[in-house]
Write a structure and sequence with these properties.
Rossmann fold, five-stranded parallel β-sheet, binds coenzyme A, binds adenosine monophosphate
Length: 621
């Protein structure tokens, strides 16, 4: 069997042949004439992603195998859908969408909790060649509105409520408010009524999900071009306006199918559980598409790592459903460790079937790595990727050749990704020296071909800084053995409990407060969540407000505008912010101070005393 080095080199030297071979694992309506062209990966090929994720497995005799296990401790439900069940539901839901006028190329927004209907909805869109855009349930109405206006969905699919351990989240009023704020009008909303809190439907606009699907005839798969979009997933950029990451059909199916076997070492029929949310890229790739394309059983878990009901929740699910591969974020492991430091809950369950624990979404700190490795006695695999790439950029590819682990490193670049670390001039830095982590073009299949309805921003955000390279936005270094170490974002993006957040978006909200003159938001280290956003706020002269009161108002404002997921609770009123002489706030320097990195004041600084003051405040907080 070829080892990692050989496979990797082949992928970089002969990407055409490499990916053409991988493409054979996908069923095409029209096989692509070649893998790569100026029109994108697999241009000229035609396929349907839903067919590859569902129908083909039924045709191949997997109809009775579990496709999806829904495990919801918050509702006390465990339910299994076989591939045949899934096909039936997806085809009828696609029929409903078709009856509502949704066709290939139309967009559909999905704003749903972690219920099987969310997965069915995504696949139903894929079946029709429609483009889904899933919005995470923890976002507020205003954020949903921004996405609705940008995606311009023909139909919105939602549910009456989501269930958080501490409260019911009524989604329907959030959707109503979002539609009031948005200028775009979908022609219909289909609402899944959950018994925990049914919603009042708006006559003439809303349909009851179950009734509507019951009356719909099944729809067949629509063949689409490999380069047609499968979905748009909005993610945080450096400003308040989210970026619509586009995923194509062909490259995505090929890359995800390949990654399941080669990165994750997963085989058809195995149980694969990504404990994330369908609203994030991890959910798209490894709750929905990856496992289903590979004929695995995926677990859809509506619960938390702790509190539903205890820190043994993950171990219970692993044992009960025979999970072989678990994928989650380090923050989830930290949450378990905090409540059960001795790992006593893990010992109550039979975890002998668990082969790998994969972690991503934020840096895996060595403490968490060692704790999980010691507890489980299986490989714990840090891997690094982003919404934009859709699948791992650096990982220990256990399906090719497990490499020795270096704690703190997601190991080496995954085949397909030519990772280069560059200095500010665009020159490669020597091993061990930190710089901007980039990927030399071409990016492999499955990565973003553009930003939805904003190709200029795609070029300016990712391709302009270092011509010929994709800018990841992360800083880090390669060591002498070629292991990558990712040290954190070099821009205004932070990671809060594995959720990606733009500090620029939080700043826009703070700046809208009538008493705020100016502000800066940075991520500060948090033991549990990795990072938390923290605001530094200068009040308008003479406003006479009590700082503590304004700080409370700001926390409420961010929760209302961005949503609870921002976890924005802390801000401090300061007399001034450090700036350059041209008036630019020294956010980068503030970030360095907060991260405990060495920093130097730029020569263009307006007043060094202001920087010293803020450094003191950051250290105190
Ligand atoms: N719908 C509505 N609200 C949601 C939500 C959803 N789908 N998901 C989270 N929220 C809310 C939470 O209720 C919480 O609200 P609160 O301020 O009223 O308590 C807030 O958003 C923050 O949620 P979360 O980040 O989940 O923090 P938490 O304190 O509830 O739990 C962890 C902390 C570590 C247990 C949790 O973040 C976790 O399980 N993370 C796993 C990471 C993950 O899934 N990452 C995805 C990429 S792999
Ligand atoms: P998202 O697009 O939400 O998946 O967030 C992507 C960002 O999360 C990356 O750019 C990194 O900053 C961070 N990230 C994800 N995985 C890792 C990891 N394994 N190690 C370090 N940072 C990570």
């Amino acid at each position: 069997m070829a080892g990692y080095d050989e496979v990797y080199q082949r992928s970089i030297r002969q990407p055409e042949e490499f990916w053409a071979q991988a493409a054979r694992a996908v069923e095409w309506d029209v096989p692509p004439p070649r893998a790569m062209s100026e029109h994108g990966w697999f241009a000229g090929g035609r396929l349907n992603t839903c067919h590859n994720a569902v129908d083909r497995h039924v045709h191949a005799g997997r109809g009775d195998q579990a496709a999806l296990v829904y495990d919801s401790p918050v509702t006390g439900t465990v339910r299994t859908l076989t591939y045949a069940d899934l096909l039936d539901r997806v085809a009828r839901t696609a029929g409903l969408l078709r009856d509502l006028g949704v066709g290939a190329g139309d967009t559909v927004v999905i704003y749903m909790p972690m219920v099987p209907e969310a997965v069915v909805a995504m696949l139903a869109c894929a079946r029709l060649g429609a483009v889904h855009s899933v919005v995470f349930g923890g976002f507020a109405a205003a954020e949903l509105a921004v996405r609705i206006d940008h995606a311009r969905p023909k139909v919105v699919l939602s549910a009456s409520c989501g269930i958080e351990p501490s409260r019911l989240v009524a989604y329907k009023p959030l959707l109503d408010e979002a539609l009031e704020r948005a200028s775009h009008r979908p022609s219909a909303c289909v609402i899944l009524q959950r018994p925990q809190r049914p919603a009042e439907l708006t006559p003439g606009r809303d349909l009851d999900w179950d009734d509507a699907v019951r009356g719909a005839a099944p729809a067949a798969c629509v063949s689409v071009a490999a380069t047609d979009p499968l979905y748009v997933l909005y993610t945080s950029g450096t400003t308040g306006a989210p970026k619509g990451v586009v995923r194509d059909n062909g490259g995505h199916a090929v890359a995800l199918r390949w990654s399941m076997e080669n990165v994750y070492g997963a085989a058809p029929g195995e149980v694969f559980w990504a404990a994330s949310d369908v609203g994030w890229v991890v959910g798209h790739s490894y709750i929905v598409y990856g496992p289903l394309l590979a004929g695995c059983t995926t677990v859809l878990y509506e619960g938390k790592p702790v509190g539903t009901p205890d820190p043994g929740a993950f171990w219970r699910v692993v044992a009960q459903h025979g999970v072989r591969t678990l994928f989650t974020a380090p923050t989830a492991i930290r949450a378990i460790k905090k409540e059960d430091p001795s790992g006593s809950y893990a010992k109550k369950y039979d975890l002998s079937g668990l082969r790998y624990l994969f972690l991503a979404g934020e840096r895996l700190d060595p403490d968490t790595y060692h704790w999980a490795s010691d507890l489980l006695g299986i490989p714990v695999i840090d891997h690094w990727w982003q919404t934009e790439t859709g699948w791992p950029v650096a990982a220990n590819c256990v399906g090719i050749e497990p490499l020795p682990v270096k704690p703190g490193s997601p190991t080496k670049p995954v085949p397909g990704y030519d990772v280069r670390v560059l200095d500010t001039n665009g020159d490669e830095v020597p091993p061990g020296v930190e710089g901007a982590v980039t990927v030399r073009l071409p990016l492999p299949p499955g990565t973003l071909p553009t930003l939805y309805r904003d190709h200029d921003r795609f070029v300016s955000a990712y391709l302009s800084r270092y011509p010929g390279h994709y800018l990841t936005g992360d800083g880090g270094y390669l060591d002498a053995d070629g292991y990558l170490f990712v040290m954190g974002r070099t821009d205004d993006v932070i990671n809060v409990a594995g959720h990606r957040l733009s500090t620029g978006a939080v700043e826009e909200v703070l700046a809208s407060h009538p008493d705020v003159a100016e502000c800066a938001v940075i991520g500060v280290a948090d033991e549990l969540k990795g990072q938390l956003p923290m605001g530094f706020v200068v009040l308008k002269a003479g406003c006479g407000r009590d700082p503590a009161e304004v700080e409370r108002e700001l926390a409420a404002l961010v929760r209302e505008r961005i949503g609870p997921v921002a976890a924005f609770r802390r801000s401090v009123v300061v007399p001034r912010l450090p700036k350059t002489r041209s008036g630019k706030i020294l956010r980068g320097t503030m970030r360095d101070i907060a991260a405990g990195r060495p920093y130097t004041a730029p020569s263009t600084i307006e007043d060094p005393a202001a920087l010293a003051e803020i450094a003191e405040t950051i250290r105190e907080t």
